Amino acid sequence: MLGEIVTVEMPGHAVAHLSGPSFALEVVSGLPTALTLAISDRKIGEELAHAMATPLFRLYQTTDITGAGIGGAVKNVLAIACGIVTGRAMGDNARAALITRGLAEIIRLGTAAGGKAETLMGLSGLGDLVLTCSSEQSRNLSLGIALGKGRPLADILASRASVTEGVTTAAAALLLAQKHKIEMPIVSAVDAVLNRGANIDAEIKGLLSRPLKAEVA
Amino acid sequence: MLGEIVTVEMPGHAVAHLSGPSFALEVVSGLPTALTLAISDRKIGEELAHAMATPLFRLYQTTDITGAGIGGAVKNVLAIACGIVTGRAMGDNARAALITRGLAEIIRLGTAAGGKAETLMGLSGLGDLVLTCSSEQSRNLSLGIALGKGRPLADILASRASVTEGVTTAAAALLLAQKHKIEMPIVSAVDAVLNRGANIDAEIKGLLSRPLKAEVA
Question: Which ipTM value was assigned to this complex?
Fold first, then answer.
């Protein structure tokens, strides 16, 4: 993750990670925003938070850089899944269930990689996920919607100047999940559609026919 | 809660609680829906789940009736808060932050009352909250939107034939929070607006000027 690269390239410097539900346009418009500030040095973190925060730009501090990084990355994959559900007109119930079960996958991956469940249930996990899955301003969501409506991936990508992070993150998240031997059925289905030529309807059917289990994160 | 009343009135019968993100219209239309089935008797629960579930109506089982009940009730209060934020045009960032910090309040209350965090992070907590806060089909959300736009509560209630659960739940949740000595600043602000004549803008300002803390549930 980015934080790890910076740590290697710039040793001896504290790395801070600002993450959470924040469309930039709303921040500069002075609309209220709350974010996670992740930094291992608690004291520098407090100084940073007090220097940057205002009543309309609230910063919640954590030392859990791993959790903040994983939440911020994997939410993009789930936004594509939410888009597919929206594009296929599968309803609000399905979308809410997908966000819930998707967060459970993020928490499984994040805690297996050494992050904290609290971070992933917070602004840089759940908060960011809710925003990205709810607003058409999100590039990942709109890519999923186009896919769900049946437009081919290559077409969608060719028409975009900006990067849609979720496409590459799906494969990376799945590799990390395999390394930690945890299941991420939704992320795996998105990766199959994006990177392994799978059929969308077959993947949806596969998710819906998984055995019933107890509800645990 | 309802489950407790049924247990008292009908002793010796297993009480099951079905809860989660489910607009009935979507369920009868055959759109995919996933819910929590809470029942203390695991064996009867498994029989019920297998009798009722289909690939398009997925039931995740838990024995945590308290958690499922609190999640399903308190989400209505937060939906009113989400509506106020929407009605006041405070933006998507604020809405996502409100859902995240609102879920933290639900988890605090639910675990203090003996429920499990996993249940509240699941379909009957987070899932139901996301649905209720995102869809104008929700009576609580639409009441909040009208309040946020400046319409008086008495006016809104007088124009409705149906019950808006969040109005009475706000006071009940706050009483339970006080009993367990936990903080629920968002629920308290909603209750102040609904039941104690507080000014909406003053309550929003109060929430935004709370001291910065570490991000924990």
Answer: 0.91
